[in-house]
Structures are given as C-alpha cells and as structure tokens.
Amino acid sequence: MSASGSRGRGRGKRVNRVDIGPPEPYRSQSIAIIPEKFHQGNKENRMMNRPPSSSSTTTSSGRKPSTDHCKSTSRSSTNRAKSTHSHRNSIRSAVPDTSIISIAQRPDQGGTAGQKLRLYTNHFKCNIPQILKCHQYDIELEAANRDNTWRPAKKDDRFLILRKIIEREHFPLVWYDEGKSLYSIELLVDLKDQYEIIIKDKKSDREQKYRLLIINLVKSYDIQVLWDFIENKIAIRPRDPIRILETLLKQTTRATMVCVKNQFYDRRQDLDDLGDGRGLAHGFYQAMFLTKIGATLNINSTFTCFYQPFNLVDFLCEYLQHNIIRDGIDEREQQLLLRKVLKPIWLETHHTESVRKYRIRGFGASARQHTFPRIVDGTNEDNQERQSVYEYFLEKYQITLKYPNLPTVELYTPPNKTQFHYLPMECCTIQAWQRSIKPLTTDQRARVTKKTVVNPTQRYQSIMDIIQIRNFNQDKYLNEIGMSIDDQQMLTVPARFIPPPEIKYKSGRDGQSDIVERINIGKWNLRNRFQKTRTIDRWACVLISSQKPNPNQLSIAKQFIDQFPYIIKQYGICFQTNPIMFSDPANPQVIHDRLRELKEKNCEVVLIILNGVGEDIYKSIKYSGNQKLGIVTQCTDFVAIAKNIRNKKLDMYLQNLVQKFNAKLGGVNGMVSLARALTSSSTKDDI
User: What is the mean pLDDT of the chain?
Assistant: First the structure.
C-alpha cells in the first residue's frame, strides 16, 4: 500500500503493466472420440501457467440550446451565477418530429368464431385535467470542491439534495427528472437563481456543500395536446407531455425505492441468490400510454439482477466459483474480473471513521508484499524505512488482516484518477443496489424463468397488489395537479377464444400418410414423423469443457452420442455413418479451428455438448459456425444430458432438441391443417 496523510489510504504512482490476454480455461488438450472409446490427443495445444502480473488501463457533455426553447420573460438573466456547464446538447428522440403516429384502429365489432369473453389488461385509466400547463426549467445541481470550485453532483445524490432544498425553501409544487430539468405547474417567478445547502452524511458525519442553479425557463407545455392526439386532431404523438407526467408519477416512489428507468424495487427485500455474486430483485414497471379511451397507466411485475452487497473476497469466490482464499487469483482471472465485472462497480470501505466509495482500476501485490515509505508525523517524505499494507493496518487501525496473502486492489475516486490507493480486499464491500446487465447463464435463465413465469391469476393478483401498495390516489403530487387513477379494477377488452388449429405429421408406420395431432392449450404430443426430413451422410460431435473432463463425464457424453441417432430416427432423421468425435477446451480459437477442420471433412452438422462453459463460448460457436464457416451447429447442455440419462428421460429431452435440429437442416416439422381450418363452419363468417 502506498499511503500518505492521516486517512490511512495508500497513494502512489501507477505502475505500467503488460496487458496480457486471457489464456485457455484449462490445459489445452483435444480428446478425440471414436465410436468405442475416447482417446487423448492433440497435445500441441498445451500451454504453461503464466506467473502473476498486473496490468493497467487508463481512461459533461455540452448541450446547445434548442431552437424551440423559449427564453423566460419572468426571470432575469443578468447577474446570474454561472453554471459549470455553459452549453448542453438538446435531448432528441430517435423518432423524428415529422413522423406520423396514430392510434391503432381496433375491430371492435369483429367476427363471431369462438367463445366471446372479456380480458383483463394491466392498464388503469388516468384522469388528467385538460386545462393544465406544465413548465420546464433548466437547472444545475453542483457540489463544492475543496478549492471552492464546483463540480456536477453525483447522480445518486441529486434527488436528495433537491428535496432538502425544496423543503427548506418551501418551493411550490415542483418535480425533478434527476438530470437537468425541473418541472412545475406554476411560473417560478419568486425563486432565486441560486440556493446553497450543506448536507451532513449520516454514516460519516462529513459535511458537503451543494448548490442549485435555476438557469432559465425552457418551455411550457399544454396538456390539452394529449386529447388532441387521442381525437386525431394532431398526428404527432406528444412525447414531451407524456414524459413530464411520467416523471411526476415517479416522484413519491423514487424517494423510497431503487429506480431503474421506469422500474422500481423495494430496498427492504432480500435478493434471490443466483450463485455468482448477483441476486434477483422483484419490482414493478409503470408507464403512461395514450389509447382510444384516453391516457392509461400500464403496471406490470418486473425482475432484474443486482450485485449482492458482499465483502469483495466473498463476492470474488462466488463469481469465480472457487475458493480464492485457498487458491489465490491468477493473472488470467484478474484480467477477466477487470474486463467483465469489476471496473464499473462501486466499492465501499468501512475501516476508517467514514464510509468511502471507490472504483477499482487493478490488482496489486499481496498485503504482505506491497510496501510504501513508513508514515511519520503524518508524512512519508524523506523516510527510507518501508512498511507493508499488513503492518500499516495493524499499526494504524489495530486490524489484523485475515487474508494478507491475497492481492491488494488498486482503487481511485472519480473524477480524480491520478490518486489511487492500494487496499486489502477484505476491507472492501460491494455497494448495495448496483444493477448488473451481464447476461445470465443457461442455468440462471432457467431459475429466473421458473420464478418469473406465473399463471394469469397470479399475475393479475401481483399487479393488483402493486396498485394497492402504490396507492396513487393518495400521492400528493397527483393530488396537487388534480390527477387521479381508476385503481379499483383493470381495464377490460372484448375477446374471443378461437379453437386451436390441427397440426399434421407423417405417420410413424409408413412415413407417407398424414396424421393429425390435436392441440390442447398450446401443447401437443410429438408421436410421429416430421413432414420433411433429410438423411445425414457425415456428422460430428464435439464435447467442449471449461476444465478437463473426467472419465465419468466422458462416459456420459459417449452414452448420449450412442443413443442420439437411434432416438431421433423415429422422427424421420437418419444418420448413415458414425460421428467424428472430439473433446476440446473452451477456447474460441480452438473451437474455430475445429469447426473449420470438420467443414473441410464435409461434415453436414456438428452436435456440440457444452460442459460448464459460459455464454461467451456459445456465442463464439455460433459466430464461427453461422457467420464465418457456414456449418450447421446444434448445442446441447451437458448437465441436462446427464440428468435425463440418469432419470431415463432422454427421449423427452430430445423431443424439444430434435425440432430445432430438423429446422436447421432445412426440414419441416409439422404443417397446419389449412383445409380443415378454412372449411370449419365456425370460421366461415370470421373476419
């Protein structure tokens, strides 16, 4: 740790490091598979472990006033405090203003086929006063630096800062978009151009000075345009008034919940663990729509992933799926962590008197090995004696580090990227409620789907519960502008339950005559041959693993390969030869070379078994097969294969797989019985 000052944070110049790409996930070896036995081979891909090293990478927009912005006549522009951002780019929609957007016309008096019924929608009618004007003001929220200059306030702090100023100064009704805009139904003629406030952090007791700059009136909006659009008096959808009202609807919820665009999540809930340092949160979505009956509020259940607020050591154990306390973190894993997960994450430290927030830039030597000049009387100048991070924490904070042999982490505080600090991992915690946009693995998607896909009755009740908890009609912001929501019941629409079509397959006996399968609530059995199939003359199977497969895994793969041709033969797909078989490491280049080799051997299709690999490997397979080489690939999951072989349900598993398999080969699985559908008496008068 390179430390200076009395705060106990290491500082020092950044060391240039060699940027080394990640090596292969395990010692590269190809295990060729012949019909009777797996054989090891292709040892030329073997590579040596690399010694640990470190690497480094270094890393307000101006906004011009729009031509349609109106200058305020009620606020003086002279002697106004200047903003640190003098110009801003106008926010524009991707849809041009000249586009003609009209409400879809529905056939309310439709056909007569099927059973008539009414469907609940997840929409609730909004009652908005037609005579209403909203005014948009351009503002800045800034934080004071130590040298009395100003910088933009952090996004997460803006809402709280503005709310405290509003409460202290007794503003009229205003609402905020957490960016650069403040909205009101009154002209803010009596407000000053600048307000300052000092806010004390509850955790650290540190005081920070902020200021609000009210720059100018941007534009006034007449809500009457919503009805003009609904009644087809204007053709351009009024996006800005809708956005302003949606911002108003967020105000109360935003103060108490985590807000991700139009989604809201209760901070008090426990996340459902996903097994890699992330958890699933349950929340709700809300948005306003314009329909034939007027404005409606759309409410739905939603789920998203957040990083768990774990200690950094525990988080990395979860993410890497091994015990880093015992095994350490090698150079490849350090590069992987920085590239894929750690750089955008905020970390907190709690070992000092205050909670501090950092971003991670890299890894350093272990707490025992990383040394810096010993601090004497608050300074380390002209001091040749050195101390380690481990010794510093013991002397300064009386903290005996539990894991002194783990790498330290190199931290910095934006926007100051020149000062950095080497701290022990165990002193860092993942800041709570940081959203993760990293794709889910196949297993995680299955777990999330099981939790989020519910029957209509449960979905209905979940949405009604959200409406009751949200209690829109007691919202002070809605009450102030005279807006209300009909929240007692969802809006309903007329519908008809149409008899399902019939699907034709070829008979499994003679392969010629048509067999009709009846559909029951979207499901039907696959008991016959596909309509059109092909014979495969040459094919291959490749086992791709993140780690060297053990004999049991090889045996399971062999069982699957032996049974696969015989099971899918009943659907009309025939294999003329035994497959070419290999086992390869999960390395994109190795995979590409293997597929190219099989392409040169005239393989028509490659069946790939994925054994503990990530989504990136799946994408590499599809990129090489579909885009680069033009060879058909069908991926399947090793865990699912093993489970179904063990439970003797491989036939059922392959029913789903073979339908995709046949379609990729240019086949036709089934055909809708058009003759019966078109000649049915119940559909003759249908529209």
Answer: 83
117 shares a domain with 231: yes
Is the Cβ–Cβ distance between 473 and 487 less than 8 Å? yes
640 exposure class (CB count in 10 Å sphere: 0-12, 13-18, 19+): middle
> What tokens appear for 232 in the block?
């087809």
Residues 421, 479 within the same domain = no
Listed residue (69, 59, 52) closest to 17, CA to CA: 52
Question: Residue 2 corresponds to which tokens in the numbers above?
Answer: 């390179």
Question: What is the tally of structural domains in the chain?
Answer: 4
Q: How far apart are CA 242 and CA 244, in angstroms?
A: 5
Residue type, 344: P
Cα separation of the two ends of the chain = 76
**Range list of β-strands (E), 68-225:** 115-120, 123-127, 133-144, 150-152, 174-176, 181-184, 194-200, 207-222
Residues 568 and 600 in one domain: yes
Q: What is the pLDDT of residue 108?
A: 61
Do 575 and 641 fall within a single domain? yes
| Residue written as token pair 């809605």 | 478
Containing domain of residue 596, as a range? 532-669
CA–CA distance from 291 to each of 93, 227, 230, 232 (Å)? 21, 10, 7, 11
The answer to whether residue 664 sits within a structural domain is yes
Looking at the fold, whether 427 and 327 belong to one and the same domain comes out as yes
Assess whether 196 and 293 both reside in one domain.
no
Report the pLDDT value the prediction gives residue 593, as an integer from 0 to 100: 96
276: which 2 tokens? Answer: 């890699």
Summarised one tens digit per residue, pLDDT across range 187-219 is 999 999 999 999 987 766 778 999 999 999 999
Question: Could you tell me the two tokens for 68?
Answer: 């349609």
CA distances from 78 to 67, 193, 215, 216, 319 (A): 21, 10, 11, 11, 56
Residues 207, 255, single domain; the answer is no
Sequence-separated (6 or more) residues with CB below 8 Å from residue 36: none
Supply 548's token pair.
Answer: 């060297």
Provide the strand spans (E) within 154-277.
Answer: 174-176, 181-184, 194-200, 207-222, 257-260, 263-266, 272-273
pLDDT by residue (tens digit) across 231-248? 989 988 899 999 999 999
In a shared domain, residues 232 and 205: no
| Residue 281 domain flag | yes
List, for residues 537-554, the tens digit of each pLDDT value: 999 999 999 889 999 999
What is the percent of the chain where pLDDT is above 70? Answer: 80
Compute CA distances 652 → 232, 525, 527, 575, 643, whole Å.
53, 10, 11, 20, 12
Task: Establish if 71 belongs to a structural domain.
Answer: no
Q: Is residue 515 part of a domain?
A: no
Distance between alpha carbon 671 and the CA centroid of its chain, in Å? 37
Q: What is the mean pLDDT of residues 356-362?
A: 92
